[in-house]
Amino acid sequence: MILLRSMLFNLAFYLNLIVQMIIFSPAYFLMRRKNAWVIPKNWVRSNHWLLKVIVGTDYSIEGLENLPDGPYIIAPKHQSFWDAYALLPHLDDPFYILKRELTWIPLFGWYVIKMQMVPIDRGAKSSVMPAVLERTRKQMADGRQLIIYPEGTRRPVGAEPVYKFGIARLYDQLQVPVVPVAMVPGLFWPRRKFIRYPGHIHVRFLEPIQPGMKPDAFLEKLVDVTEAATDELLVRTIDENPHLPLSETARKRYEELTGSSRSATASSR
């Protein structure tokens, strides 16, 4: 049953993307940039609905009161494609620093350009950073929120954290608050996997880290608060879903935190 629901959801997910792009593109490109956010945000909401109805996976967010007014950096855990889009409806005017190649994709790339994302040539490495920083400052001056994943890429649930120093440089240069975000969506939407599992994804916006700290001290605090909250949500989520299959890294981390054993291949619901 889970396999069938996963197949139906994945089909519906991509059909939803294609159909909405075709139907709403004329309105999207005619609207003012900030007003046009209503279209991708509604696409995200429709994906949440599809995931809930087809698979049985819902989500909730704690700590919305921790989101500051004006510009800030939001720093989520990154375990799944789900967290690449799921937070958009809860942010006013977000943007990403992303691979330049994404802007070359027909139609999708035009959507990206319309929203004034900040493209980066990863091959050029440090030589492009001054220009990227300048573009980021320009977006921040308009009161926007930068979404950046501190670990850079999707990590397995329960894996040892590997935070990049780049977010500390941005924190130091931009002088805006950073809001850590804890969550474990990879338990339900595993990275690089076709399968989707039913359950409830908990997301927690943590208290913002205010500007003014030394970059090293900031990064240490970011890791500490994010990982502590993520560990708490990991234990809570696994306890709430006793039949949820676990990866080896998730199982080991759960056992380290609780001192109790948990099967890595528990039976699916």
Structural overview:
One of its GO terms (biological process) is phosphatidic acid biosynthetic process. The chain crosses the membrane at residues 12-31. The chain has 269 residues and is an alpha/beta fold. It has one domain (58-258). It is 43% helix and 13% strand. It has a seven-stranded mixed sheet with strand order 1-7-6-2-5-3-4. Strand 3 (94-99), helix 4 and strand 4 form a beta-alpha-beta unit. Helix 1 packs antiparallel against helix 2 and helix 7 (215-240) crosses helix 8 (248-258). The radius of gyration is 19 Å and the shape is globular.
What is the mean predicted local confidence, pLDDT? 93
- For the CA atoms, what is the radius of gyration? 19 Å
By DSSP, the count of extended strands is 7
Number of domains: 1
Task: Bin the helical content.
Answer: 40-55%
**What's the SSE pattern?**
HHEEHEHEHEHEEHH
Overall geometry: globular
Distance between the termini: 8 Å
Describe the sheet with the most strands: 7 strands, mixed
* Tally of contiguous helical segments: 8
The fraction of residues in strands falls at 5-15%
Structural class: alpha/beta
How is the largest sheet built, in terms of strand order? 1-7-6-2-5-3-4
